[in-house]
Design a protein that fits this description.
Methane Monooxygenase Hydroxylase, Chain G, domain 1; 9 helices; 60% helix; rod-shaped
């Protein structure tokens, strides 16, 4: 386990670095302080020890220890449990990488468990830097740290959206250019957009649920405004993803139509050449039987006439198919 961040707020003022988790828990008990802790990939035992100190619900701890959770927001008494999916667009590989962060928000603590970070590490500490220089947010307590994390993750979605949009524009150009492998790329992009929707869409419902419980759980007005701002951004992200999904579905339809059209053109060509070769083959087959009593078999001009007939029939059919644009 790596402790990425371990700070204590006494009377909800500027944070102080704590030398250890034990010291943090002692200060929380003795001085009625609040804490902000970020753990990177703790095992079940390490997470369980922290959970006992903070009084976390066993079901939430079990989900966090297992990982691979869908984005969600659940409340266990006075503690919120949120699962968030940060994302990063890899421009070199042209694909989207997703992480997984579990946030526990209590009345006097904020605990973030990073199970996967697409940026390598430090996704949560970087997000919490949004609170620096804003004492009003510090006094709002751990809910402000949840806002900072959500706001940072949603803002990081924008470059990912831009990267996907560029890929889709390239797909549209390649569809009618006959570029090999475009079908596979469309399917890959479609899968990435669907995964992105699974990560981003639940954020809308999560923040809406926070608003519905704002009065009951005493969410400050300033925090309500900030969560609404994140909600607006999340809705725009989801709407753009819906548009991307529709565009890719249309691209799949167009690609299937073009493939069927190409197959039909190939069938026409094959059928046309088969018809062209049929007449010469038929004439050659008949005169190749070598019966004694055959018309014009001993005629001087029989052979040249047969060859000429083959050529005329073949050219005539070729002209007909050319006019019909089979070739």
């Amino acid at each position: 386990m790596t402790v990425e961040l371990n700070t204590v707020y006494v009377d909800r003022i500027a944070p102080m670095r704590s030398p250890s988790l034990d010291e943090t828990f002692r200060m929380m008990s003795d001085q009625q302080a609040s804490s902000c802790i970020v753990l990177y990939q703790p095992d079940a035992v390490e997470l369980g020890d922290v959970a006992v100190e903070l009084g976390l619900h066993e079901l939430a701890v079990e989900d966090s220890a297992e990982g691979h959770q869908r984005p969600k927001l659940e409340r266990y008494g006075s503690t919120l449990f949120a699962v968030l999916k940060p994302a990063l667009y890899n421009d070199r590989r042209e694909e989207v990488a997703f992480g997984e962060v579990h946030a526990f928000v209590g009345q006097d603590f904020f605990l973030a468990v990073v199970q996967a970070d697409p940026r390598g590490q430090h996704v949560v500490p970087r997000a919490l830097q949004r609170m620096s220089g804003k004492p009003g947010l510090v006094t709002a307590g751990p809910q402000a740290q949840l806002w900072a994390l959500m706001d940072s993750i949603v803002d990081d979605y924008i470059p990912v959206i831009d990267g996907l949009e560029e890929d889709i524009n390239q797909i549209e150009d390649q569809l009618f250019s006959g570029v090999a492998g475009v079908s596979k790329r469309i399917y890959e992009l479609f899968g990435e957009v669907v995964d992105f929707q699974r990560a981003a869409r639940p954020l809308v419902y999560m923040i809406e649920n926070l608003h519905r419980g704002a009065e009951k759980y005493h969410l400050p007005v300033e925090m309500q405004r900030r969560f609404r701002d994140v909600l607006d951004h999340a809705i725009r992200i989801v709407e753009r993803l819906d548009t991307f999904r529709q565009l890719l579905q249309n691209a799949l339809t167009v690609d299937s139509t073009l493939a069927a059209q190409k197959q039909n053109d190939d069938t026409k060509k094959i059928s046309g050449w088969a018809a062209i070769l049929f007449a010469p083959t038929l004439i050659a087959a008949i005169y190749g039987m070598n019966f004694t009593n055959m018309p014009e078999l001993r005629w001087q001009w029989g052979y040249p006439l047969a060859v000429l007939a083959m050529i005329v029939f073949a050219l005539a059919l070729f002209v007909v198919f050319k006019v019909k644009r089979w070739f």
